[in-house]
Amino acid sequence: xxxxxxxxxxxxxxxxxxxxxxxxxxxxxxxxxxxxxxxxxxxxxxxxxxxxxxxxxxxxxxxxxxxxxxxxxxxxxxxxxxxxxxxxxxxxxxxx
Length: 96
What we know:
CATH architecture: 2-Layer Sandwich
Order of helices and strands: HHEEEH
Number of helices: 3
CATH superfamily: Hypothetical protein
Strand content: 5-15%
Largest sheet: 3 strands, antiparallel
Distance between the termini: 16 Å
Helix content: 40-55%
CATH topology: Metal Transport, Frataxin, Chain A
Number of domains: 1
Number of strands: 3
CATH class: Alpha Beta
Strand order of the largest sheet: 1-2-3
């Protein structure tokens, strides 16, 4: 992860906030943020491979329909925490 990639991911997150989304778009962002799909659970669970402190993230699939606004907002808020964790790591690497 570098500054330019992180900046593009922030822009993508903001774009996703402004329009209805299907699960696949959010899963793609989760994957690019270093999450992988884990086994188990009623809905697909995504765990961070880079940050142990980040909670597992459930991204439900609803028969190729858009996610409800509240669900989408909650998922994007959690993915924003991933972006903040990456920013912290990059700051630590530059300071160290």
